[in-house]
TrEMBL record:
Keyword Signal: yes
Matches recorded under Pfam families: OpuAC (PF04069)
Position of the signal peptide: 1-20
GO terms under cellular component: ATP-binding cassette (ABC) transporter complex
Domain ABC-type glycine betaine transport system substrate-binding: 24-122
Keyword field contains Electron transport: no
Keywords: Signal
Species of the source: Candidatus Sulfobium mesophilum
UniProt lineage: Bacteria, Pseudomonadati, Nitrospirota, Nitrospiria, Nitrospirales
GO molecular function: transmembrane transporter activity
SUPFAM superfamilies: Periplasmic binding protein-like II
Protein name: ABC-type glycine betaine transport system substrate-binding domain-containing protein
């Protein structure tokens, strides 16, 4: 009997975290592009598969429209690169990518209520010249409502190198469904 009571107590303690994302809806916002389509599919698939959370993607014409949607609370997660982020916070680029990432991460959280997670791993992408980190970015309040989310999305950190990025983008541009490409990638990395 003691074992049954102990087991029930342990289950009840663990349930809040396990149930933290289930039954809720998250909105990913991206600029309408091949990269946005692919990365939003990767994010939505891993979040849905690992947490049971419904994930919907909203596409925007440009960065301004995306950030307007964030301000209007229509987007919970976005995919951003450090080059664009520097323009948004009006800071100069630094030749040290890690320093640039840390600057953007700090300024976004302090001034915009947005938390940068670790980068996907590739250095290409975005709309600016040169190399740039691209990473998932969450609204601070999302962290409170979805406490398991950073751990789940964090599994993507460093998983997409430049070569993989190019292959994934080319597959989508060649007409393969982004959802299929995303799912195959996640399975190949044993993330789903």
């Amino acid at each position: 009997m003691k074992n049954v009571v102990l087991l029930l107590a342990l289950l009840l303690v663990g349930l809040p975290e396990a149930d933290a994302c289930v039954g809720k809806t998250l909105y990913i916002g991206v600029v309408d592009s091949t990269e946005g389509l692919l990365l939003s599919e990767i994010l939505s698939t891993i979040v849905n598969e690992r947490t049971g959370t419904t994930v919907k993607t909203r596409y925007y014409k440009n960065t301004r429209a995306l950030y307007d949607a964030i301000s209007a609370r229509q987007v919970d997660i976005l995919v951003e690169n450090t080059t664009t982020a520097l323009r948004i916070i009006d800071k100069p680029a630094d030749s040290d990518l890690q320093k640039t990432y840390e600057t953007v991460k700090s300024m976004y959280e302090k001034n915009k209520g947005l938390v940068w997670l670790k980068p996907f791993g590739f250095l290409k992408g975005g709309d600016g010249p040169g190399h740039s980190y691209t990473a998932p970015v969450l609204k601070v309040e999302v962290l409170n409502n979805f406490p398991a989310l950073p751990r789940v999305v964090g599994k993507l950190a460093g998983t997409i190198n430049d070569e993989t990025y190019e292959k994934l983008i080319k597959s989508v541009e060649a007409g393969e469904k982004a959802q299929k490409v995303a799912r195959a990638f996640l399975k190949s990395k044993k993330l789903i």
